[in-house]
Amino acid sequence: MTETDPSQMTEQRDIGPLYVYGIVAAEADLPPELLGVEERSVEAIMYGPLAAVVTSLDSDDEIGTPDNLLAHTSVLDVIGSHTAVLPMAFGTVAPSETDMVETVLEVHQDDHLAALQRLEGTVQFTVRARYLRDEVLTDLVEENSSVARLREIIAGTTEDETRQERIQLGEQIVQAFDRIRPEHADQIFDAVHPTAEDVKERDVGQVEDVVELAVLVAHQNITIFEEALEDVASQLHSRIDFQLLGPQAPYDFVGDE
Amino acid sequence: MTTTTRSQGSYVDRPSSSSLADVVELILDKGLVIDAYIRVSLVGIEILTIDARIVIASVDTYLRFAEATNRLDLTQQGGKDLTELMEGMTESGSKGKIGGAVEGVKDALTPDDDDQEKKPAPKREKQSSE
User: Is the confidence metric ipTM above 0.85 for this complex?
Assistant: First the structure.
């Protein structure tokens, strides 16, 4: 018993594929005039207690483009700042509405409802902390005699002339970053953790990365979360750059649980 | 276009919208997955993804950091250095854990470092009072 609003039905949707952004509660109000993938409109298809947020596609639409990735995120982030939403993976395309209702809204309905209840009233932020490379390197040169010595050896030489020394220097520097990173990462984590419902540490790959955190924050705690982050940033700002993204949909807090 | 704002006296950058690079890193492999429905072949996104996830230690990375060190202008430095930051952390309560992390860094710390920390930097009034 599909409860799709007949006024929103189009013939095209019945035969065409649907791009699926995510799942919300059926009673959730979506922000008006959302612009979705391929610059098409965004609609909700309701079934029982859940609704899927979708866009009707033409079968020859090419979905995997940068613009569509940005559209996917911006639709979910706008919805996420209004109401609880379970984001689908980017590029989720159902062949038809019937198929989508069955696979997205009917299967695991209880799990989805429980997840939405858990996320109700919260929003995700992403915290990124990166070392200011040259500032930290300057510290290392001044404080580490081996780094300073190797730096003198390579000064005024080409990469070919001092390749071994350069590799040695670079390795010592990377190891130094590895030694200092955990303490700073912990300090930042500990600063925001008390203000959050949940925090997940993402894998970071670059030498300069200190930590990247996905933080689930209750709406009423957003200000104290921002203050806690500001406070730790003010302590570390001379060597670490802080970036705060969000509010976002809870990408890091759905799935695999 | 992504613009970044930092409000007065703030040490946290807040991009007004997500750049493609941000989005790729943040969400490309996240969200609920219905295997049969992932119909997307990425166009113009793969390179970025790979770029963002390159693993840390390689000879290229070493050479890149060596060259960055080579090019440093050592007269420019201001603000608290690493050792002082670590001391700041000790004051704010994580005593004991900090020393180990700094040891490797402060091999040959010289006392005249103090002169260099006085560069004017935006200062927040609030100080940790615990």
Answer: no
With an 8 Å Cβ cutoff, are B13 and A92 in contact?
Answer: no
Can you state the percent helix, strand and coil of chain B, rounding each to 5?
45, 5, 50
Q: How far apart (Å, rounded) are the C-alpha atoms in residues B73 and B69?
A: 9
Q: Tens of pLDDT along A144-177?
A: 999 999 999 999 999 999 999 999 999 999 999 9
A61-119: per-residue pLDDT in tens? 888 888 999 999 999 999 999 999 999 999 999 999 999 999 999 999 999 999 999 99
The domain tally of chain B equals: 1
Structural domains of chain A sorted by starting position, each given as residue range(s) with its CATH number in brackets: 6-117 (no CATH), 123-253 (3.30.70)
Q: Do B33 and A170 touch (CB under 8 A)?
A: no
Residue span of the structural domain in which B59 resides: 17-70
- Asked, for residue B103, whether it belongs to a domain, the answer is no
Round to whole Å and give the CA distance between A188 and A211.
Answer: 8
B105 found inside a domain: no
The reply to whether A114 touches chain B by the CB within 8 Å rule is no
Q: Are A53 and A42 in contact (CB under 8 A)?
A: yes
Min Cα distance B5 → chain A (Å) is: 10
pTM for the whole thing?
Answer: 0.79
- Pairwise CB contact (< 8 Å): A205 & B55: yes
